[in-house]
Amino acid sequence: MIIKKRHPLSSKEQKELLEAIREKYPSIYEVLDRKKPIELLETANGEIVYLQESKPLLFRVDGNILPCLRACQEVLEALPKVVVDMGAVPYIVNGADVMAPGIRVVDERVALGSVVVVVDEKYSKPLAVGIVVMDPKDIREKKKGKAVKNLHHVGDEIWKFE
Questions:
Q1: Could you tell me whether strands 81-84 and 115-120 are parallel, antiparallel, or unpaired per DSSP bridges?
Q2: Do 3-74 and 79-160 fold alike per CATH?
Q3: Mean pLDDT of the residues in the chain
Q4: Domain 79-160 superfamily per CATH
Q5: Which of 156, 155, 146 is CA-nearest to residue 102?
Q6: Are 101 and 144 in contact (CB under 8 A)?
Q7: Residue-wise pLDDT tens digits, 77-109
Q8: The CATH number fitting domain 3-74, selected from 2.40.37.20, 3.40.50.2300, 1.10.8.100, 3.10.450.120
């Protein structure tokens, strides 16, 4: 990852970011340490990553703010979950989208367009963060097609950032 810019957010920018998080993810807002400063990191590719204590906390994709897999456990637990079978794990950690046949459980909070954390069925380890692109009812019934668009996964550039 080539870093183009890295600087602390001003108090106004941090307040605006926290307000955006509160509107979109009230459960995440509650577990964030809002007193600690947040840094903005911009890569040469134009990706925006928000850091807290030098760890990736959030990132921005197509105007959406999403939590990073390296964020604290409480942040990830606040998101709805999609549980996949162990056969899907190698594909997901290589960046593949989540296909409906590999899904074992869909959290009741999941809706079309919602941000989810994808976890494996054996260890419940977070594998990816993505957006649901199929109606959860269809995921459960049809078991066919792409269900979750993978936006951030274990082993990608954001995950590797230290």
A1: parallel
A2: no
A3: 92
A4: PUA domain (2.30.130.10)
A5: 146
A6: yes
A7: 889 999 999 999 999 999 999 999 999 999 999
A8: 3.10.450.120
| Domain residue ranges in the chain | 3-74, 79-160
Q: Scan for tokens 């990553």, then name that residue.
A: 49
Q: What length is written for the chain?
A: 162
How many whole angstroms separate alpha carbon 11 and alpha carbon 31? 19
Give the residue with greater pLDDT, 153 vs 32: 153
Q: Who's near 74: CB < 8 A, 6+ residues apart?
A: 31
**Nearby residues of 87 by Cβ (< 8 Å), 6 or more positions away:** 102
Of 125, 123, 143, 126, the residue nearest 135 (C-alpha)? 143
Q: Is residue 106 within 8 Å of residue 125, measured between CB atoms? A: no
